[in-house]
Write a structure and sequence with these properties.
This protein is of the alpha/beta class. The protein is built from eight helices and eleven strands. This is Glucosamine-6-phosphate deaminase.
Amino acid sequence: MTDIINPAAEHQVERMRVLVYNHRSHMGAAAAGQVGQRIRDLQEHFSAPVRMIFAAAPSQQELYEGLLQEQGIDWSRVCAFHMDEYIGLPADAPQRFGNYLQERLFRRVNPGRIELLGRTGNIEEECRRYAALLNEAPIDIVCLGIGENGHIAFNDPPVADFADPYPVKSVLLDEACRQQQVNDGCFASLEEVPAHALTLTVPALMAGRHLFAMVPGKAKHDALQAALYDPVSTACPASILRTHPGITLFTDRDAYGS
């Protein structure tokens, strides 16, 4: 179990609890401690598997490293989903989000059930298949980030819909979103980044009972400020997060500012 790490600052923004840490490593360790405790609490009180949705992004690295150190979690009683996937990349491409999570977390903790997005070639069929899996039971925990353009999952401003009727859909990626993948070192150039992807929709993410958002780094400063303080709108899809009754956002000074 991770030692308690106190934030340098704490804010309440509508329903969102915002914890600011001086260092990114402290942010990740604190987030892992709270996510780990939530998993343990659910496993102590309920016999059903803990159903979790994970983001695949460098912003989540410290969280996942911390979760590897968390004691007392029965990972065999965890059902793991992820929230988005590129369309058109080879199955073994390291940039695929399912492969990213397999390498950094799933193969190391061995969840009892892993449901990867993008396993079938037919896009409409895959959206229906994954939606059915998500709808089998409520989602307990969502671990997510915020993109440089304010996206959550691949719900970029042009395609985000707070009342989307579908749990999973295919989207055309915003150029700012694709450029972030280059900035993060996932691709060498914009041309290499796929233009289309599958994503869980905003309502599917917001349906999770407990949301934990990790938002580190200077590149996220503008998006984070918009998510916290601009009007709630799809101009910054992450702004909807502050209306969720069970969300905690972890950030560092680089992202939040002084």
